[in-house]
C-alpha cells in the first residue's frame, strides 16, 4: 500500500516496514543553489525530485541586534563572536575563568527572542503530507565548549564539576524554554523534535561514556522528555564515531540518530543494525565521501549495499552520512543515490 511521506516516516520510527525506505535530503546552501540551477527547479521542486520525505519549520529570531566588532562575522545568542571561513570559529570564551556567581549573572539569552507565531501556519501548508521537523536545534554541547574553551571544559569537569553543571543547565534551560514555546504553539502539526550535538570524532567519542553520563546525558534527556511530553519523536543529529554512547542514548529514550557515518570508528553498519536496530532508528549511512569522489555507478552500488544492511525490519531512513552535502558534490551522484533508494528501497 502506497503511503504518504508522513506515514512512511512514522512507520519507520515504529520499527515497522513502510511501503519503501523514507528519504532524507540535507544540504549546504551552496549545493542546494547549484542543484536548483542545474535542474531548473525551485526549492519545493528540488525536494520532490530528490524524494525528500521531510519538511522543517523554524522559529524566527526577533531579539536584539548586537553590534559586531571589526572583523567579526557573527555572534551567537550566547555572546560568542565568530570569525573565519564559513561559519567561522569562536574567538572568545567568555566564561573561561568565571566564578559560580559570574556564571549565574552572565547575560543568558531570553527565550522570548525567538518568535514562534508563524510556525503553525508554516507546517499546515504541507497538508499533513510530510514528516514535519520542529523545535530548536539545541546544540548545548557546542555552546558550552565555546563558552569555556574545549580543553578548559574538560578540566572543569574534573576540578569544578558544579560549575560545569551550572553552565550546561543555563544553556539547556534556554533551549527547553524555546522549544516548549514552539510546541505549545504547534505541536499538533509537528512530528519530530530534531536536535543537534556532535559527540563523536572520526576516531571515536569526544568524551568517555562516564563523563557523557555524568555531564551531558541528563540534559539530553531533558530535551527528549520534552519532545515526548508533546507526543513527538526525538531525533539527534550526531556526527562522528560514538558507538559507546548509543546505549545510554537509548536508555534516555532517544528515538532516532542522524546522520550515521560508517567511515568513523565503531560505526560499522552491520553491527549497528544488529545491536541497536530494533531499539533506535538510524538515518543516513550512505558515505558522503563517495558522493563527492565516486561515479554515479559506484554511488548506486554503494547505496544498494547500505539498503541491504539497514532496511530490513524498518527503523531506517536513507540519506548521506554527512547531512551538510557540500557544494563540490556532483548533482548526478545525489540523483543516483536517491533514485537507487526509490528503486531498491521498496518493501514487500
Task: Report what the structure shows.
With 348 residues, the protein is an alpha/beta fold. The chain has a single domain, classed as TIM Barrel, CATH 3.20.20. It contains 14 helices and 14 strands. The strands form four sheets. A seven-stranded parallel β-sheet has the order 1-7-8-11-12-13-14. The chain has a three-stranded antiparallel β-sheet with strand order 3-4-5, with no helix packed on it. Strands 2-6 form a two-stranded antiparallel ribbon. It is globular, with a radius of gyration of 20 Å.
Q: Key features?
A:
348 residues; alpha/beta; TIM Barrel; seven-stranded parallel beta sheet; three-stranded antiparallel beta sheet; 14 helices; 14 strands; 14% strand; globular
What are the SSEs and their pairings?
Layout: H1 5-13, H2 29-39, H3 43-50, E1 54-56, E2 60-61, E3 74-75, E4 81-83, E5 89-90, H4 100-105, E6 114-115, H5 119-124, E7 131-134, H6 140-148, H7 150-159, H8 161-186, E8 192-196, E9 200-201, E10 204-205, H9 209-229, E11 233-237, H10 246-251, E12 256-260, H11 269-276, E13 281-286, H12 288-293, H13 296-310, E14 316-320, H14 331-344
Parallel strand pairs: 1-7, 7-8, 8-11, 11-12, 12-13, 13-14
Antiparallel strand pairs: 2-6, 3-4, 4-5, 9-10
User: How would you sum up the major sheet?
Assistant: 7 strands, parallel
- Could you give the count of β-strands? 14
Report the uncertain regions: none
C-alpha Rg, in Å? 20 Å
Short structural summary:
The chain has 348 residues and is an alpha/beta fold. 45% of the residues lie in helices and 14% in strands.
Amino acid at each position: 500500500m502506497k503511503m504518504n511521506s508522513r506515514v512512511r516516516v512514522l512507520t519507520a520510527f515504529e520499527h515497522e516496514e513502510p511501503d519503501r525506505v523514507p528519504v532524507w535530503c540535507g544540504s549546504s546552501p551552496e549545493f542546494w543553489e547549484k542543484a536548483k540551477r542545474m535542474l531548473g527547479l525551485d526549492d519545493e521542486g528540488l525536494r520532490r525530485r530528490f524524494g525528500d520525505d521531510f519538511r522543517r519549520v523554524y522559529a524566527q529570531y526577533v531579539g536584539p541586534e548586537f553590534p559586531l566588532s571589526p572583523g567579526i562575522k557573527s555572534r551567537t545568542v550566547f555572546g560568542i563572536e565568530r570569525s573565519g571561513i564559513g561559519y567561522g570559529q569562536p574567538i572568545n570564551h567568555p566564561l573561561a575563568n568565571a566564578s559560580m556567581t559570574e556564571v549565574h549573572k552572565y547575560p543568558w539569552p531570553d527565550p522570548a527572542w525567538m518568535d514562534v507565531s508563524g510556525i503553525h501556519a508554516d507546517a499546515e501548508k504541507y497538508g499533513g503530507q510530510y514528516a514535519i521537523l520542529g523545535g530548536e536545534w539545541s546544540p548545548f554541547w557546542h555552546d558550552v565548549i565555546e563558552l569555556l574553551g574545549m580543553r578548559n571544559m574538560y578540566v572543569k569537569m574534573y576540578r569544578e564539576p558544579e560549575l560545569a553543571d551550572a553552565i550546561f543547565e543555563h544553556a539547556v534551560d534556554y533551549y527547553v524554554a524555546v522549544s516548549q514555546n514552539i510546541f505549545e504553539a504547534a505541536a499538533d502539526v509537528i512530528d519530530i523534535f530534531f536536535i543537534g550535538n556532535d559527540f563523536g570524532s572520526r576516531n571515536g567519542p569526544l568524551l568517555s561514556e562516564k563523563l557523557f553520563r555524568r555531564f551531558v546525558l541528563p540534559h539530553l534527556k531533558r530535551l527528549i522528555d520534552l519532545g515526548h511530553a508533546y507526543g513527538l519523536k526525538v531525533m539527534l543529529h550526531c556526527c562522528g564515531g560514538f558507538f559507546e554512547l548509543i546505549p545510554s542514548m537509548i536508555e534516555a529514550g532517544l528515538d532516532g540518530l542522524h546522520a550515521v557515518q560508517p567511515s568513523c570508528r565503531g560505526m560499522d553498519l552491520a553491527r549497528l543494525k544488529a545491536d541497536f536496530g530494533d531499539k533506535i532508528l538510524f538515518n543516513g549511512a550512505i558515505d558522503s565521501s563517495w558522493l563527492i569522489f565516486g561515479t554515479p555507478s559506484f554511488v548506486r552500488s554503494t547505496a544498494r549495499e547500505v539498503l541491504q544492511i539497514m532496511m530490513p525490519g524498518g527503523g531506517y531512513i536513507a540519506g548521506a552520512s554527512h547531512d551538510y552535502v557540500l557544494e563540490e558534490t556532483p548533482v548526478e551522484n545525489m540523483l543516483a543515490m536517491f533514485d537507487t533508494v526509490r528503486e531498491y528501497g521498496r518493501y514487500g
